[in-house]
Design brief:
It is built from 3 helices and 5 strands. It has 178 residues and is of the alpha+beta class.
Length: 178
């Protein structure tokens, strides 16, 4: 058996490849009860509204079990890093949950680049706004509701020799310039 080659290079999204106003490709995810429960378990959130249908519907008065906050954060991070690639580094992210996401809903992520800049340390930054639209199982695309909104700041390599993951100390300023 031959060893795995380390010469295989992943595609690299460079800072200069991105412009303000660029649209990120959409990502649609069909939510299942397993999606909800595994997200809660992964974040050690044992509160019953994330795994116990009867508790969620009878005690909390909601339609079903629902995604918890860390699970939604992870989906935003996945969406952003899928777009930006393995050489990008998430600097900051804030989001606001507006409605619950239940099993049988479809989550659709879409994003827009809102800013491109370089900080004093020479790190290339991209600001992105993301919308998470939620559509129930019987709803049309026209009736999707805003589930959450997110703003993120992502460091992208300036060239193929730049590595945002190698930046430390004064060379890493994820909250400067927000």
């Amino acid at each position: 058996m031959s060893p795995v080659s380390s010469d295989i290079a992943a595609p690299v999204l460079l800072h200069g490849d991105v412009s303000s106003g660029d649209l990120l490709p959409e990502l649609a995810i069909e939510v299942t009860a397993t999606t909800v429960v595994l997200g809660a378990v992964a974040s050690r959130d044992w509160r019953p509204m994330h795994h116990d249908f009867k508790f969620a519907t009878e005690r909390n008065g909601v339609a079903n079990i629902f995604l918890n906050t860390p699970n939604q954060a992870a989906w935003f991070e996945r969406y952003l890093t899928d777009w930006a690639g393995p050489h990008a580094r998430l600097g900051s992210m804030t989001f606001r949950m507006r409605t619950s996401v239940f099993p049988d809903d479809t989550m659709t992520f879409s994003g827009t680049v809102t800013g491109v800049n370089t900080d004093d340390a020479g790190c290339g930054w991209v600001s992105v706004d993301v919308a998470l639209m939620v559509r129930g199982p019987d709803a049309s695309e026209d009736t999707a509701r805003v589930g959450s909104t997110c703003s993120a700041r992502i460091a992208l390599p300036n060239d193929r020799n730049d590595n945002p993951w190698a930046r430390q100390g004064d060379a890493w300023q994820p909250t400067a310039g927000r």
